[in-house]
Specification:
Protein name: Methylthioribose-1-phosphate isomerase
Shape: globular
Pathway: Amino-acid biosynthesis; L-methionine biosynthesis via salvage pathway; L-methionine from S-methyl-5-thio-alpha-D-ribose 1-phosphate: step 1/6
Helix content: 40-55%
CATH architecture of the largest domain: 3-Layer(aba) Sandwich
CATH class of the largest domain: Alpha Beta
InterPro entries: IF-2B-related, IF-M1Pi, IF_2B-like_C, Initiation_fac_2B_a/b/d, M1Pi_N, NagB/RpiA_transferase-like
Number of domains: 2
Bound molecules: 5-S-methyl-1-O-phosphono-5-thio-D-ribulose
Family: Belongs to the EIF-2B alpha/beta/delta subunits family. MtnA subfamily.
Number of helices: 11
Catalytic activity: 5-(methylsulfanyl)-alpha-D-ribose 1-phosphate = 5-(methylsulfanyl)-D-ribulose 1-phosphate; 5-deoxy-alpha-D-ribose 1-phosphate = 5-deoxy-D-ribulose 1-phosphate
Radius of gyration: 20 Å
CATH topology of the largest domain: Rossmann fold
Number of strands: 18
Length: about 350
């Protein structure tokens, strides 16, 4: 990603520590922090300094390396995995990454584990970047198709939450297609759902689109259906925290409502996901554990005060309770296609398409 013309990743190894962009400070300040222990990494994931399914997978992998640096025993490995998995339950990438690490590392002598853990975490980070680049090339074709159908008109894309650079190591998933299309000179515009309660759209997606020079407009979460009825949205592209075997898409709360509105208005709805976001163990989205976050995220909003400092303001009565489910499931029947690094598949063909990639035994 380019920030003020400088190249950045969201997370990287620096010697025996990990550096990451603290997303809770964006869009007003670009702050990088150093993480030196498993406890600090768990806190960074839970408090959403790092967030987004692919990024928390890689962050957890680095968390394993930090844990082993403190203690490389089998017990420490097992304990680190349990602590990391408990930070955020919905995105499958996190559990996938730590299980992958655990399996390989347990088989090694203790003396080899730390070095290998860093190598594996760096490799997962690099794989994320290359998968996202490939997703972008796949999605660009869809946008180019829309542009070719109406050459004089801008292609309007709606996205929800943040599935851009910031949700990954670099490149983004849903926004990878947007960046690829923009870089290819296609005339596009992005409608950015603000994405209450944590406003990942308003704070993060808008910020990174602005950094890249992509035309965009922030809208309230409730505006999308109206814009669809007005013919102002050509396609919806979102990311996902988990896609189940049948093609159900679990993503940020509110995605389901956008998919329903898109379906009613015959607007294509796509989810862009790298392979580690597909959970082959689960057949249906109903089995996914939906993270319940602190009700204070609904009761308060964070923004910049007139003094330039971050402030929290309460927006609901002191007497009222709030509920904060962080994700929802969009059933496969509302999904036009899953954009992956291997191709774009209708949900019902996802499993079959992937089986075709695996070598026959
Ligand atoms: C490429 S990211 C896909 C999803 O992880 C993203 O859309 C999302 O829902 C992020 O949720 P968050 O709670 O901000 O981690």
């Amino acid at each position: 990603m380019r920030i003020n013309e400088q190249h950045f990743r969201t997370i990287w190894q620096q010697g025996d520590r990990v550096c990451l962009i603290d997303q809770t400070q964006l869009p007003f300040e670009l702050v990088t922090v150093e993480v030196t222990s498993l406890v600090q990494m768990c806190h960074a994931i839970r408090s959403m300094k790092v967030r987004g399914a692919p990024l928390i997978g890689v962050a957890a992998a680095y968390g394993m390396a930090l844990a082993l640096q403190e203690n490389a025993s089998d017990g420490s490995l097992q304990g680190a995995m349990q602590q990391l998995v408990a930070t955020r339950p919905t995105a499958v990438n996190l559990a996938w990454a730590v299980q992958h690490m655990r399996q390989q590392l347990l088989a090694l002598p203790i003396a080899k584990r730390v070095e290998t853990a860093w190598q594996m975490a760096n490799m997962l980070a690099d794989e994320d970047v290359s998968q996202n680049l490939a997703i972008g090339q796949q999605g660009k074709v869809l946008i180019a198709g829309k542009a070719a159908a109406n050459p004089q008109q801008t292609v309007h894309i709606l996205t929800h939450c943040n599935a851009g650079w910031l949700a990954t190591v670099d490149g983004g998933t849903a926004l990878a297609s947007v960046y690829a299309a923009h870089d290819a000179g296609l005339d596009i515009h992005v409608w950015v759902d603000e994405t209450r309660p944590r406003n990942q759209g308003a704070s993060l997606t808008a910020w990174e689109l602005a950094q890249h020079g992509v035309p965009h407009t922030v809208i309230t979460d409730n505006a999308g259906g109206h814009l669809m009825q007005q013919g102002q949205i050509d396609m919806v592209i979102v990311g996902a925290d988990r896609v189940t075997r049948n093609g159900d898409v679990c993503n940020k709360i509110g995605t389901y409502l956008k998919a329903l509105a898109a379906y009613d208005n015959r607007i294509p709805f796509y989810a862009a996901v790298p392979t580690p976001t597909i959970d082959w163990q689960l057949v249906h989205g109903a089995a996914i554990e939906i993270e319940m976050r602190d009700a204070d995220e609904v009761a308060y909003m964070q923004g910049q005060g007139s003094d330039g400092k971050l402030q929290k303001v309460r927006v609901i009565p002191h007497e009222s309770r709030a509920l904060n489910p962080a994700f929802d499931v969009t059933p496969a029947r509302l999904v036009t296609g899953i954009i992956t690094e291997r191709g774009i598949f209708p949900p019902e063909q996802l499993q079959q398409a992937y089986t075709a990639f695996e070598p026959k035994s």
